[in-house]
């Protein structure tokens, strides 16, 4: 029996989940990642793993036990505060035994997936420069000029996917919403009042198209996001390496909020990161092409409302299962895309509406 040559571009959650399930079925796979090593950069904040998507994928990957060892059911707590009084409007604690959406740090989850793979599966420091369909498969050309042919190239390479460029040519568009990320280190000891306001999970407050979000991680770090409507060039001339200038600009934008809430900005540790929110148009779909397919953000980049990582994991495990069970690579890709594309389109529509709700003045929408 001839096994297909499968390449995955990108060592994010979806690509790693796909590789894990392929290996469980005895199939060979290579994951090409531009980062030089697993710990080359911080992996972001905390994720809620949904029982009907992300947890299903982890079960398919045989990693439920490892996930539960690190997951934080208490992280499901949701607090909504009034921006003018800092008083709690909503404080929802998870019920005893509720593990419908436990939190886990993104870096921890990525570590679980990496540890589950055969040594050498991920080829670190191998950025993909170009992707070309060959009619019967696809060719990857790497930054060093070396090319390699595969029966299937899976684009798990995120928002600015090079594989998507070869398959659909569609690029993400600015959503009109921007995120500015910052954080508080060792919050229980260094920022106890803010730690108490945050709780064990997520705190949000908002008014007039401006939102402040704080999320606790497993280390006691609190990751914060100032989120607001803004033109794409709102930060023109603002040097994000100059933390004081960024803080002052944000304090001006959030003027009139309660001082206890503005303390998240005043007491931040380190710098700020500008994260303008880009999304793919809805619907984003394509005709099945021999040798190429997409998963995760490469397929359906949408607002970060708690579903992206879950869908990426589910995409990856469903694609791998199809590849392991269908009579051919082409049949597998068609079966996978027939399920993934309608699901992602409906979810992207819901997320577009959810982004509007997030930036509305309705504090009750936070508990949804």
From TrEMBL:
One of its GO terms (cellular component) is cytoplasm. The keyword Hydrolase does not apply. It catalyses: a tetracycline + NADPH + O2 + H(+) = an 11a-hydroxytetracycline + NADP(+) + H2O. It is an enzyme of class 1 (oxidoreductase). One of its GO terms (molecular function) is monooxygenase activity. Its EC number is 1.14.13.-. Its cofactor is FAD. InterPro entries: FAD-bd, FAD/NAD-bd_sf, TetX_monooxygenase. SUPFAM superfamilies: FAD/NAD(P)-binding domain. Keywords: Cytoplasm, FAD, Flavoprotein, Monooxygenase, NADP, Nucleotide-binding, Oxidoreductase. NADPH binds at residue 41. It is found in: Cytoplasm. Gene3D superfamilies: FAD/NAD(P)-binding domain. Residues 6-173, 292-326 form the FAD-binding domain. FAD binds at residues 48, 106, 297. GO terms for biological process: response to antibiotic. An FAD-requiring monooxygenase active on some tetracycline antibiotic derivatives, which leads to their inactivation. Hydroxylates carbon 11a of tetracycline and some analogs. Monomer. Belongs to the aromatic-ring hydroxylase family. TetX subfamily. Consists of an N-terminal FAD-binding domain with a Rossman fold and a C-terminal substrate-binding domain. This is Flavin-dependent monooxygenase.
């Amino acid at each position: 029996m001839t096994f297909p040559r499968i390449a995955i571009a990108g060592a994010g959650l979806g690509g790693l989940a796909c590789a894990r399930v392929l290996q469980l079925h005895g199939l060979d796979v290579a994951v090409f990642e531009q980062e030089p090593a697993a710990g080359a950069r911080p992996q972001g904040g905390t994720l809620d793993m949904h029982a009907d998507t992300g947890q299903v994928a982890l079960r398919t990957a045989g990693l439920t036990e490892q996930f539960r060892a690190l997951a934080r059911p208490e992280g499901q707590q949701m607090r909504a505060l009034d921006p003018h009084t800092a008083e709690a409007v909503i404080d929802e604690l998870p019920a005893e035994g509720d593990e419908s959406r436990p939190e886990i740090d993104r870096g921890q989850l990525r570590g679980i997936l990496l540890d589950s793979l055969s040594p050498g599966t991920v080829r670190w420091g191998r950025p993909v420069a170009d992707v070309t369909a060959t009619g019967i498969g696809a060719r990857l050309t790497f930054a060093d000029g070396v090319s390699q042919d595969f029966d299937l190239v899976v684009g798990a390479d995120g928002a600015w996917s090079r594989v998507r460029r070869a398959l659909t040519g569609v690029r993400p568009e600015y959503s009109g919403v921007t995120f500015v990320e910052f954080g508080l280190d060792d919050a229980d000891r260094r920022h106890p009042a803010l730690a108490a306001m945050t709780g064990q999970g997520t705190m949000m407050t908002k008014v007039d198209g401006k939102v402040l979000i704080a999320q606790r991680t497993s280390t006691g770090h609190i990751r914060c996001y100032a989120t607001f409507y803004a033109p794409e060039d709102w930060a023109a001339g603002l040097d994000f390496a100059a933390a004081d200038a960024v803080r002052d600009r944000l304090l001006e934008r959030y003027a009139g909020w309660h001082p206890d809430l503005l303390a998240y900005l005043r007491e931040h540790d380190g710098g700020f990161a500008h994260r303008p929110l880009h999304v793919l148009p809805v619907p984003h779909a394509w005709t099945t092409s021999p040798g190429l397919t997409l998963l995760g953000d490469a397929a359906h980049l949408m607002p970060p409302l708690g579903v992206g990582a879950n869908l990426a994991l589910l995409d990856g495990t469903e694609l791998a299962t199809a590849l392991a069970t269908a009579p051919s690579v082409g049949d597998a890709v068609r079966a996978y895309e027939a399920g993934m594309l309608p699901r992602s389109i409906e979810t992207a529509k819901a997320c577009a509406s959810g982004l509007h709700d997030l930036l509305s003045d309705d504090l009750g929408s936070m508990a949804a």
